[in-house]
Model the fold of this input.
Amino acid sequence: MADPHSHPPAHGTSYDVTKDADTPGGLFAVYLVVLLLFATTFFVSSSGVLGRYALFVQLAIATVQAGVVAYYFMHLRQGDRVVTLTALASVFWTLILFVLFMSDYMTRHRVVTG
Amino acid sequence: MTPTANPRVQGVPGLTPPPPEPPPASPNYLENGTSLWSWLSTVDHKRIGILYLLTISAVFVLGGVAAGLVRLNLVTYNSGILSEDAYNRAFTAHGVLMLFFFLIPAVPAVLGNFLIPMMIGAKDLAFPKLNLASWYVFLVGLVFGAWAILNGGIDTGWTLYPPYSTRGSQSSVVPGVVGVFVSGFSSIMTGLNILVTVHKMRAPGMTWGRLPLFVWSLYATSLIQLLGTPVVAITLILLGVERVTGEGIFDPAIGGDPVLFQHLFWFYSHPAVYIMILPGFGVVSEVITCFSRKNIFGYHAVAWSSMGIAVVGFLLWAHHMFVAGISYYSALLFSFLSMLVAVPSAIKVFNWTATLYRGSITFQAPMLFVIGFIILFTVGGVTGLFLATLGTDIHLHDTYFVVAHFHFVMVGGMVLGYMAGLHFWWPKMTGRMYSDWWSRVSAAIIIVGFFLTFVPQFYIGYHGIPRRYPNYPPEFQIYHVLSTAGASILGLGYLIPALYLPLSLFYGEKAGANPWSATGLEWASPSPPPVFNFDEERMPVVVCGPYEYALGIDQLGRGLPEPPGPGGAEGPAGRAGVTGPAGPMQKETEVVG
Ligand code: HEM
Ligand SMILES: [Cu+2]
Done:
């Protein structure tokens, strides 16, 4: 008994773990993309070219970054259907957070006096 | 026991004879290394469960001492014992210890750790080392908590509302916040472990529809832990940052938004109350079927209502903020959504009640605790609806009514559920039976003491006495005295198990593999179980649903042993006598799986 706490696949399925493995080059390319997007955010916020729309662009870039990290680094690319569904569910759950927060912040009526 | 030796089985067609008593495990998990190091370095889920048990029991004592100080102080109407400042620190210590360091880990980390692998027929959790790490992380959190307390304590209340917590408070907010933050990671680790284990490591035949309801409830709990805890972690960091650097996040004087803190805090902390109660629901489902010898009524409804609570529980947090300055529309919305969560909770209560109907009920300690749970939780849940109603909450918010409400659900509900689980699985965990008489006495004392403590608080809360104040009008003194008297009885009730449970380790009768004649897989292996739970050669193969008491078979399809078990008819496992003999019986109930 080598490692009593390891659990081999129950049904004897053998699959090739090298098939979807990350390559250093691939990982590095993704990393570069993320850095590039970061540089864009930095430029957008410090130069002020987009004025009041900068925030939206920054948020959009951040979303893309998060997506790329999840897809490649967090291995959603190799995930089966349960994993993909779980990831989507967590996006939906974040949506709940924002929508219900906004149900408060967007419906406050402040009376401005003076 | 041969089939014919069992008079009830004999002649009843279709009933399987009970299996022979399995030989004691050698070594069992307790004997597999007895040095301190063998415990501190263990990756055995059962030992880690025991480590958690010891840790949180110590926390429970500390939290109880703090509660005792609060209650003693309230005997006089002018804060006769503690200074006002010390009083603030006492109730905060009570809340922080009991919520973050006792109730949240109580059932998932103790009973969940111990039982989930056994119930699904696995050797261990999916990540045994992560499991051990979670305990150490918990200890680190606890050390920070202890630091905060030894350093004078925290005076903000467990809710840590800014701006007081970031600007005004002179107490040890930062170490306390770090403690809660760190312990959150242990909660995440436990949740993750349970989720993966349930997905990946079920024994052959253990389909989702055959999972014991305890597993379903912990699955739902783990989802909440995984989704919610990171949010409170970030919130606490923001709080710490504002307090340390003076950066305006929550404090309106420096450009922050205090209501934002409450949103973020309750976005976790309301679901967290379901982290606390859902595991208790799981225990109730296991115990109530066993002690009424009936299949659970509405297996799928009970299982899905756990998932429903996990989801809906995330949609109601702002019912804690009705008077905090949120918009009226939002308050209306959250009031309505809060009503919704009563539906799955009620589904459970109705199904448990229906399970009792025409059952062959016996009243050993686990069952007494469970009956207490159902009654007290129902009171707590219904008063929750009063609070969820926008109009009444404006009157009741931050009064003793709220205090009584959540103690009914958390102490009357969850602590009793934890006690029920501990008493139900104690023979499995230790291989010993405890005193039947004393355990029943303690259950009775706890329930009586509980009522006496918290019913007066509903009354004074309804009459407007705010919570967290050490002073109150003299005419209300009698109710506080009653409440303190009840708390003393409650304390006595907790003291008794603290004596007979440890004593049972030395003097208790040896327990068989299945002393309660229950159906789950965990009862198939000897008590205490071997290191890898089940026979190395023959891993379990599940053939039916979890509660086939009607057919009188366990999940492996074997007959149930004939009660009474060890201890004779008078022992804790003895069923004959109270409401007549129990055992396999034909009942018209749903067959699951
Ligand atoms: C039947 C479902 C429930 C409903 C509708 C409900 C509703 C509420 C509401 C509206 C409040 C806020 C009262 C106020 O501050 O004015 C509240 C407070 C509270 N509830 Fe519940 N509740 C329910 C079940 C539970 C459960 C199961 C638990 C815990 C196991 C729990 C624990 C708490 C706690 C700890 C507080 C007070 C938090 C604080 O301010 O310190 N509730 N509940
Ligand atoms: Cu709540």
